[in-house]
Write a structure and sequence with these properties.
By secondary structure, the chain is an alpha/beta fold. It has a single domain, classed as P-loop containing nucleotide triphosphate hydrolases (Rossmann fold, 3-Layer(aba) Sandwich). Helices cover 40% and strands 13% of the residues. The protein is built from eleven helices and seven strands. Strand 6, helix 7 and strand 7 form a beta-alpha-beta unit. The relative contact order is 0.20.
Length: 277
Amino acid sequence: MGLARLLPRPGIRTETAKGAPVGRVISFANQKGGVAKTTTTLNLGVALSEKGFKVLLVDLDPQGNLTMSQGLNPDAIERSMFDVLVHRLPIDEVIHHQEVDLAVSSIDLAGAELALSSMIGRERALEKAIAPVKDTYDYILVDTPPSLGLLTINALVASNGVIVPVQCEYLSLRGLVQLENTLAMIRENLNPEVGIEGILPTMYDSRTLHAREAVEILQENFGDLVFNTKIRKTVRYAEAPVKGNSVLKYDPSGAAAEAYRDLAKEVLDAAKAREHA
């Protein structure tokens, strides 16, 4: 099906001049919508927080679904990531303390790409914005829009790695090629270290042959970049945001919550492997 070659994993975590590690920035990207980017950003973040890590979530999607998933109304938010990116407002002024810290989105963010387009260094607006708080967090997780526009480019430029949620169907797999090409251009011109941290099969239904074949195709083309964890279809992921909660808070002992705890363990195991490489 013409999937491109494997992307390299990103390098070892950066350290400050004093030797203290700075926050690892991971973006969740896929130009196809409805693949569980927001669900994964929130629930992985909460799962990492359960393990004692300090986590910041950044809602870079004008739809504001991550913001809404924590019980906040994007339409009522006065200052958001739009002000951070376009007006250089310090990011800590838009961080709300929910289950984990969250830099919120609003509908204004829909105008950010146009506003940024005429700015010098427009691809590095997010990188500059999070720099002052990087040493405050162990992980900074960025939810991106369902496109490969300037907001997503900002996220990829600012990131150490990218997690790609992929719906377990053939047409969703083809979108990886475009994302891979975009990452190659970003590595060449803007951020030489960014690569795919992992590919996460989502909306998996083991009862269907099509879903099982889709995972097999991913594994054949991307090998160990494909997480062992598979996010299965369940109504719990739709119910939890209605309550303004992660699924780990909404149904802490359920299978949906355990799936994201398993994913967190894989992410942390990969981090340990990088440190000892």
